[in-house]
Amino acid sequence: MVAAAARRVVTRWGSPSRSALWHGARVDVTRQEDLRERNSAALLARVAAAPEPPSRASLAAATGLTRTTVSALVDQMLLARLLEETDPPGPARGRPAQRLRLSGRRVAGLGVEVGVRHLAAGVRDLSGATRVLRVVPGDQRGAPPEQVLRGAAELAEEVLAAAADQGLEVVGAAWGLPGLVDARAGVVRLAPNLGWHDVDVLGRLRGGATSATAGALPTALENEAALAALAEAWSVGEGAPAPRSFLLVSGEVGIGAGAVVGGRLLRGEHGWSGELGHVGVDPGGPVCGCGATGCLEVYAGQDAVLAAAGLDPDGSTAAEGGGAGAVLARAAGRGEERVLRALADAGRALGVAASSAVNVLDVDAVVLGGVYAPLVPWIGPPLRAELARRVLRARVLPVEVRAARLGADAVVLGGAARVLQGVLERPGELLATALPAAARLP
């Protein structure tokens, strides 16, 4: 390879210096590595999206790559434990072709959630399986950011240790937080329900204010609702696949939304899209924690619904267990009139706000997550009625309303999925560990 590159330099420029020879070889090898990574990513994407495990021959046909190229790349990905072979379906006839699927034996991602009333951390492997999950209840409002982040990082350490015991290599982390998250700077610009303003989360993680391992991992920040939407798009083995375009509305104390259009998460210019809780439902309504009046949050946020239902946001959920969604669902199932009215009012308010988003984004479904997921039987009908009345496209194509498949764990699992999505799109570093020594640059 180096000799061939040198001959090309000599032919074009005459006798080269040794540095020119080396530069030419480096560029040539870099291009080969880039091409190998792009082709490998294309194959991984096909395997990930296939409804059934594909064969090498079917991958070659789908991608246009030669069978020889596909076979060589697949062999490398098997060595790197990004792929694994599985038995072909049906009775064997002759020599059956081995099928391929994403491997859960090596690579994993860490997701961490800083919620208003809980902390959570979990690890998911490349096959999509959840391998470790921990949730710790506790109100974070008013607590110093350093204390909250330290608690979350300690929880992440526990999860990482459990993943290591399973032989997993966690290659990165994504943290989900409420409010305006500046992902590029690693700063939470504003989180009213936590009382945070311009909190440098990544700086604190990397600066030793938290535990060492969690701070050393490559780490990204996202808004919690965006990660919940990504989890829905990435859900594996959870029934019918997610629509390619949907709005996921996730509720806890606040209300966030993540929009997936054409299979891709929309983040907005600054990554601050999805603040559905602060869409105005009634300009003359009560004052919201953000300072505006009549926001969706004051009508359909978790605490607002509990209060309207006559339930104590702290005492009743702690006494009955299962979180606010479970408490409200049990009360609604018993037919308690005040609870039913509160849920109907919340559904109507959600429908008004979601209608505006659907009219702008043209998505096929509204998916209800977080506290809303177990409440779909009661908030779903008034929400659907508002969508049918207010969304223009609903007159020719109805908008689906359904519960999220991953429930309360969606933010953590979405964080892990964000890491794994990066592996599928840029597998080069992990593939390099499987290359024979002769194929590497000295």
Describe the structure.
By secondary structure, this protein is of the alpha/beta class. It has three domains: 2-82 and 427-439, no CATH class; 107-227 and 414-425, 2-Layer Sandwich (Nucleotidyltransferase, domain 5); 243-404, ATPase, nucleotide binding domain (Nucleotidyltransferase, domain 5, 2-Layer Sandwich). Helix content is 45%, strand content 19%. The chain contains 16 helices and 15 strands. The protein has helices spanning 2-13, 18-49, 56-63, 67-79, 145-165, 201-206, 212-216, 224-234, 297-300, 302-308, 315-320, 323-333, 337-361, 376-390, 410-425, 428-432; strands at 83-86, 99-102, 107-114, 118-125, 130-137, 169-177, 180-182, 187-191, 196-200, 219-223, 246-251, 255-261, 264-266, 365-370, 400-403. The strands form four sheets. A five-stranded mixed β-sheet has the order 5-4-3-6-10. Strand 8 (187-191) and strand 9 form a beta hairpin. Helix 2 (18-49) packs across helix 4, helix 8 crosses helix 15 (410-425) and helix 13 (337-361) packs across helix 14. The longest helix is centred in the N-terminal third of the chain and has 32 residues, at 18-49. It is globular. The chain starts with a helix and ends in a 10-residue tail after the last helix. Mean pLDDT is 85; it is low at 1-22 and 437-442.
